[in-house]
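If you are new to this repository, start here. Below is one unmodified record pulled from the training split, so you can see the exact layout before writing a loader.
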Amino acid sequence: MTDTPTVGEAVPATQRGSWSSFLKSIASFSGDLSSLTAPPFILSPISLTEFPAYWCERPELFAAIADAKTDEDRMLAVLKWFISTLKDQYTSRNESMGSEKKPLNPVLGELFYAYWPDKNNRGKTNLLVEQVSHHPPITAYYISNPSKGLSLQGHNAQKTSFSGGSIIVKQVGHATLSVLLPSGGTEEFLITLPRLRIDGLWYGSPYIELTESSYIQSSSGWLSTIEYKGKGYFSGKSHSFKALVTPPGSSSPAHTVEGTWHQTSKDVKTGRAFHDVTGAKEEATVADVEAQGEWESRRLWRGVARGIREGDFETASREKSKIENEQRQRRKDEAAAGTKWQLKHFAHVDSDPTYEKLGKLFKASPPTEDAYVFQHNPPFADMSTTTTEVAK
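And here is the target side for that same chain:
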């Protein structure tokens, strides 16, 4: 008989002692919490390599960026798309699993390939993800809609700590969006990432709140500054935000958008609706597990994911340990042979020139940041064409 928690209850009754021990270990730990092993019942059955899919689970909004006619309209389209990705990234697991879950920590070299098909002339959107580092965990991704002239490249890492009864997550990394203009030129957008605060730990029902600010800076000079607040600020609701959209060379916003990022928002000046994510999202199309390569996420973690979904935590833990032990041995073998793991799709650069150039416009901190550059190699033969297909 499995011991599955009810919706809204993260900790099964028989696992509460283990959860209490885990909370004590968090409270007394002084380093990066990502190195701690979480109890299987609080794990998500999904690897962190799948998380970049959240950028495009509303692919029509991503495609709409290319249809904007002016610099101002493009910034608003980018902001609308970005805000609309937040619900899927940060609250969807609460809704589907009853509480926030810790994603599976990917192994070095883990891969995830997916796409969203062309519908209503929005074009096909492709996603390629590679785990480019294990310690610390760093996930690199490349998303493109070739027929619309759109591509998004970025990486994400997390530095976690414990403070005031909450887990604080500093997201390290950024994304750059490139838009091919009708003139033949390219407009670029630098997108920074918000910080997270995981609350509800002591009740056994963790949930995410976004904090502080993130930025979207266009090479045209337009800037969106997004401020995140929880209960008691702005609208007095959880998941509240306010975005100030300012034109080049100005400190006075041309647009102010307020609302809750997991539901709806409006343009304060006009009163018009801005974004609405209360409707269904669109899941990515992914090859069947049996057709995937051994390094692809869903095939690699299928035994662990099955155990978690069925509430068979003993099997999940055993399968997870098997994968982790294999990885430790692989690293030992590489060290003994004097070799280093070779990335498949990305090349690391110490300083991203786009980040440095656009970051100067709003005094980004830090002023420089590294990046992982997509090498345009298989399974996407050429992501700049309209004939790109995901290998199956």
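Two things worth knowing about this chain: Residues 1-392 form a domain with the Porin fold (CATH 2.40.160.120). The chain is about 25% helix and 30% strand.
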